[in-house]
Amino acid sequence: MRNSMLRRVATVATTLGLTSLGLFGAGAAPAQAAISDCPSGYFCAWKSDNGTGTMYKTNANRATLGTWDNTFRSVVNHTNKFACLYDAPNYDVNSGTSVWAPDTRGTEWGYPGNSVSSIKLVPTERECVLPAYPEWGAYTSPTAAGFGDMNADRKSDVIVRDKAGRLWYLPGDDTGRLIGTGGWNAMSALTRHGDFTGDGREDVVAREASTGKLWLYPGTGTGAVGTRKLIGSGGWNAMDRITAFGNLTGDGRSDLVAVEKSTGKLWLYPGTGTGLGARKLIGSGGWNAMNALVGAGDMNGDGRPDLIAREASTGKLWFYPGTSTGGVGSRVLIGSGGWNVMASFLAVGDYSGDGRNDLATITTSSYVGEGCRGVGCLVLYTGKGTGALNAGAPEDANWMGLNGAF
Ligand SMILES: [Ca+2]
Ligand SMILES: [Ca+2]
Ligand SMILES: [Ca+2]
Ligand SMILES: [Ca+2]
């Protein structure tokens, strides 16, 4: 089927809406035989309204269409990729763009809705008009605190999972690098921050949805991750909000926290250097009331990592300071409401370059901010160094069409 154009620019934000337009119907009787002539793996087009006559087909990107330029009257995308149809040659998004979703049966055909002059086949919808990954820019932190920094250049980093299940490493200079070629959609939780393996490099922890296993992917120090190691043999689907916390227990190794779904208890899983040790109860109940947990690093400057949580019913943001005994202390309100417009929170360490840890958020459709509204705004909150946050500032409008960031 055909989806609406995904494009938006950073300063003029419009909501990404997925609507069906121009779809004539699946396999309407007169055209059925001709539409089915489109081979699997190909995008096909006809000059007629009903898919009859000479057929155009391609299984690769086409920057120009030669004699087929501006002639498509019916199309079908019999591939497992998104077909991006551009009004201009050379995939120029500034004229007009339409997107046809993957259709592995090759039955959903219709009018392309624009005067097609170039075609691209891509794994994710956002790649029709944007890079696969969003732009992440960070300033150099004055100290090598390490938190949020996978390649030790003192710039905080972000990892993004796209809808095709790939992982992209964003080193903080607006670029991105592929570090996971696929399969990451099998993971129902992704977290990082802190060094679990004891080599001084940040690592990634992931929960496998189908098995409830917990895997450790050691950071290589370059932003990539190495061969995974099993650190939880099962049962992790009973847990919610699995969050890498940093080194709470003070032994130099990073720890995990997670909420037990059935009880609302908050458990600490101490990192041992080779895996996770016996868990310790650090919150006796009520944590199911929180629908986001963020291991934000040391936000109040006492050297211990802290926790931020969002209360679902009120949209409040709470700060829980890490304590010397390996737990969390009395909470402090740091956001009086409205935080439910955030789809996700990213513990980014110190992106602003003042030595204090900060917080990044990605918005839902309900967000309205200055310069950006709707899904996929990146809003940054610098830390005050006390646990509290300064007012947020939208930084980028193109964090939509992804499948998570951490
Ligand atoms: Ca870095
Ligand atoms: Ca490590
Ligand atoms: Ca702290
Ligand atoms: Ca900062």
What does this protein structure show overall?
- It is a single chain.
- The chain is mainly beta and 406 residues long.
- The chain is built from one helix and 31 strands.
- The protein has one helix at 32-35, and strands at 2-3, 23-26, 42-46, 55-58, 74-78, 82-86, 97-100, 108-110, 118-122, 158-162, 167-170, 177-180, 187-192, 204-208, 214-217, 229-232, 239-246, 255-260, 266-269, 280-283, 290-297, 306-311, 316-320, 332-335, 342-347, 359-363, 368-369, 372-373, 378-381, 393-396, 402-405.
- Strands 2-8-5-3-4 form a five-stranded antiparallel β-sheet. A four-stranded antiparallel β-sheet has the order 1-7-6-9, with no helix packed on it.
- β22 and β23 (316-320) form a beta hairpin.
- The longest helix has 4 residues, at 32-35.
- It is elongated.
- Mean pLDDT is 91; it is low at 1-31.
- One calcium ion binds next to loops.
Radius of gyration: 24 Å
The total of beta strands comes to 31
Helix/strand-derived class? Answer: mainly beta
Mean pLDDT: 91
Bound molecules: calcium ion
User: Main sheet?
Assistant: 5 strands, antiparallel
Shape: elongated
Beta-strand fraction estimate: 25-35%
Cα end-to-end separation: 31 Å
Strand order of the largest sheet: 2-8-5-3-4
